[in-house]
Structure formats: structure tokens, C-alpha cells
Amino acid sequence: MKGKRNVLLALSAAASLLFLTACGNQAASGGDSAGSSGSGQAREVAIGWSGPQSGGQALYGKNTLNGLQMAIDDMNAAGGIKVGSDTVKLKLEALDDKYLPNETATNARRLRSENKATIIFTPHSGGVFALQTFNVQEKFLIAAYTSEPKVTEANNPLTVRIPPSYDNYPKTFSEEMMNRFGKKAALVPGTHQYAKDWSALFKQTWTGLGGEIVAENPVDYNKESDFAPAVTKALAAKPDVLFVGGASQPTALVIKAARDQGFSGGFIVMDQAKLEEMEPILKDPKLLEGFIGVNPASLYPTEGTKKFVERYKKKFGADKVPTSEVAYHYMAMHVFAKAMELAGTTDDAAAIRAKIAEACKQLSDDDIPSLAKGITEDGALIVVPRATTMKEGKYVQIPLPVKQ
């Protein structure tokens, strides 16, 4: 009996030792899956996105996602970012909102509650306005990819507008087209909120310069595929210039419909549509004679842009050219990541927002395309707007006054 008791005691002691060793190993590994830099593991942090992945704006949404994902992949491949004592890897969580503001709001609440996202990107003004009704209360930062000036006029302390305001463009665009083609303009814009706001500013600018609005025929760029009827109505008023715009693909189809019906005037194109995406759809560059719109991102004269374009083509294909949506999202993600590092937090939206200006200064034009120079008091990244027009078969860049 005594020998048997000794054996049992020995087995019990060995089991206790194994249990303590296992506990010690778990503690050394950091315990949960979050980990920390002290254990050699990286903590994962979600970056939220709500935008169109279906419908007429799907390509536009894909471009913004490509920019974000490329930035996140590059940072993660370099080892992640350093936030306090933690090594942090970023993970993009994207939800389709079909370009509908109510869906954006639903998605944001899900990204906040399920994924704990402190930064949520959305690439349309309607979505931004929906989020601005509750983002301060729910303590998340809106990364607003829209040039709508009302986004920053709201003075929402947790909103950062990424691209330059569209009110940089109408005056220069209008003067150029009036000088070349005449003072009668017809509008065939989209019906989404951004197009309505852009159209209102354009009409005010055009008439203020002595021009005349001879027709206005909005059409749903997200649902329609045949734009000929709306174009026919607009051309019946004998305009010199057509004001058009929405996503690149439908905008190109509107331009083609106008040329097919014999229109030889100019096109003022909202900044949502991109020249480099319309060209492949139109096939014949001559159809864009007299076009004026935003400058292709690939032509921005910085070393960082050149490197970015080369890396983008390697990642997505030699025939792929990054649009400004891609470049701006790549840039903005780097700015937000640097701001998290400087703030020493990934979950305090106000602290991250407070470090945006310093983050811009610590990044370099040699590495980051279209790099912002800082941020305005009302939350707009300070970036330089550029415009391009086609004259006699050649693209010509036009300087713009800077209005953030």
C-alpha cells in the first residue's frame, strides 16, 4: 500500500508540473490571439469600408478598394505599423452599400460593432452625410472620399475629407469651354446626390459668367444603360457644351451617345468620372476632343506617383492604370496609419484625428502618391487639384486655383 501511495503521489506531482508549465507557456505566448510586439505576434486591427460593389458605380468602388488594399498589403508586408508597444497588422473589412446612404449607415454600425473599426471609409457624399449623424456619438472616424464641400462645412470633428473640394473646378472649366465653344450649356448629369450638388454649383457658376442653361435632363447613371433619349432631349436645345458626370463607364456612354448624334461641342465632366477609364470604353480618343475634367493620377508630377504607378501595374496588370481614387485611397491609408502610430492608439478616433497634420509631414512625396501637405481646421486634407483638357488631339494640363 505504501509503495502504491508513493506512486500516486509522484504521478500527481508530475501532472501538476505539466499544468503549471502549460499555463506558463500560454502566458508567454500572450494568451489571446491579439498578441503584442513583446511576444513577437502582431495585433490585427480592422479598417472599415462601405461603398458600391454592385450596380453602375461598382468599378468606382473597386478602385477605392484597390487603393486601400494595396496600401494595407504594402504596410503589412513591411512588418506592420508600430502603435505603442504593439506591432499592428491592418485588415480591410469591406461591405457593399450599393451607393445607398441608408445602407452605408447600416454597414458602418456593423463594422463598428462586429469588427471594432475606428476608421470607416466611404466613397460617396450621401454615405458620408448619413454617417455624420452618429459617428461622433459612436466614436469612429469617417474617411470621406468625396469632393463635396458640405462634408467639411458640417464641421464634424471626426470627419476627414480626402480629395480636394469640387468647387475648385467649375469656374476654370466653364471659362475654358465658353472661350472655345460658346455660352449655351445643357446638362445630362446623374441623379445621385453628389451629381445634384455639383450641377447646382455648375449652373450658378455658368450663368454668373454670362452663360445660358438651355436644357437639363438628369438620368440615373446607376440603372440606365441607354442614354440616347436623355441626350437627344438635351441636344434639341442646340447647346455648345454638355455638362455630364457620374461614374466613368456611364459617363463615357453619355459622351458616345452625344457624338453618335452629331454633337461637336465641348464636355464639362464632373470629377467623379476619370479620363483614363473613359478612353478604353470610347476607344476613339477623338471623341474626347473638347473634354475638360480632372487630371489623371498617373500624370501627377511626383516621384512617389511614378513609383506607385509602376507597383500598381505589377500588382493588377500591365494594362491597368490607377485612377485618382486609387492613388488618394493609397495615400490616405498611409496617413491614417502614421497618425495611429503617432497617437499611440488604434481605437481613439479623436486622438488619431489630432495627429493627421503631423502624419502628413512625416511621410514623403518620394514614396506616397498625391501626398497631402496637411489638413485644414474643418477636416480637409490639403492636396493640389489639377485639370486636363483635350485640344487638337492632345491632352493639356490646366492650372487651377487652390480652394480646400
Summarize the helices and strands and which ones pair or pack.
Layout: H1 2-28, E1 43-51, H2 58-77, E2 81-83, E3 86-96, H3 101-115, E4 119-122, H4 125-131, H5 135-138, E5 141-144, H6 150-153, E6 159-161, H7 170-180, E7 184-189, H8 193-208, E8 212-216, H9 228-235, E9 241-245, H10 248-260, E10 266-269, H11 275-282, E11 291-294, H12 303-316, H13 324-343, H14 349-354, H15 356-362, E12 387-391, E13 394-398
Parallel strand pairs: 1-3, 1-4, 4-5, 5-6, 7-8, 7-9, 9-10, 10-11
Antiparallel strand pairs: 2-3, 11-12, 12-13
Helix pairs in contact: 2-13, 3-4, 7-8, 10-11, 13-15
Q: What do these coordinates show?
A:
The radius of gyration is 26 Å and the shape is globular. The protein has a seven-stranded mixed sheet with strand order 8-7-9-10-11-12-13, with helices on both faces. Strands 2-3-1-4-5-6 form a six-stranded mixed sheet, with helices on both faces. It has 404 residues and is of the alpha/beta class. The protein has 15 helices and 13 strands. The longest helix is centred in the first third of the chain and has 27 residues, at 2-28. Helices cover 45% and strands 17% of the residues. It has helices at 2-28, 58-77, 101-115, 125-131, 135-138, 150-153, 170-180, 193-208, 228-235, 248-260, 275-282, 303-316, 324-343, 349-354, 356-362; strands spanning 43-51, 81-83, 86-96, 119-122, 141-144, 159-161, 184-189, 212-216, 241-245, 266-269, 291-294, 387-391, 394-398.
